Amino acid sequence: MAPSTVFMEPDNLLTPKEKNKLRKPVVEKMRRDRINSSIEQLKLLLEKEFQRHQPNSKLEKADVLEVAVSYLKQQSQLQMRTAGPFHKSSQFDFREGYSRCLQEAFHFLSLHKVRTDTQTKLLSHFQK
């Protein structure tokens, strides 16, 4: 087979519309490659989860995405259940600690008979 030559027009002879037509398939291929790469990464990250759901079966891209969404929902619910009580108790602990600190500061500042300008400002700030 004889080598064929493809006539390529220089960039300066192409109109913007023609440049876009040439560029579109390349950009689309890059986009599909990114999607496929990400799906492959998901498949590797969630390998154990796939074995639980569909052992010994070839996974389609849609299957990978569905299992990933299911896994993320499950993790989110688990996190909410474990973080919920901790979050409430940590808020309570913070308020209790803050109140205790405020009481100690008032007590310390009230021990001094002579009040300086700074002490007065600090007390009024705490009362706000």
UniProtKB/TrEMBL annotation:
Where does the record say this protein resides?
Nucleus
Q: Where is the Orange domain?
A: 94-126
Which domain of life does the UniProt lineage start with? Answer: Eukaryota
Q: Where is the BHLH domain?
A: 19-75
Q: Name one GO cellular component term.
A: nucleus
Q: Which CDD domains match?
A: bHLH-O_HES5
Q: What Pfam families would the database entry show?
A: Hairy_orange, HLH
Q: Which SMART domains match?
A: HLH (SM00353), ORANGE (SM00511)
Q: Which GO terms describe its molecular function?
A: DNA binding; protein dimerization activity
> Which biological process annotations from GO are given for this protein?
animal organ development; cell differentiation; negative regulation of cell differentiation; nervous system development; neuronal stem cell population maintenance; regulation of DNA-templated transcription
Please provide the record's keywords in A-Z order.
Developmental protein, Differentiation, DNA-binding, Neurogenesis, Nucleus, Repressor, Transcription, Transcription regulation
* Role according to the record: Transcriptional repressor of genes that require a bHLH protein for their transcription. Plays an important role as neurogenesis negative regulator.
Question: What is annotated about its quaternary structure and interactions?
Answer: Transcription repression requires formation of a complex with a corepressor protein of the Groucho/TLE family.
Name of the protein described by the UniProt record = Transcription factor HES-5
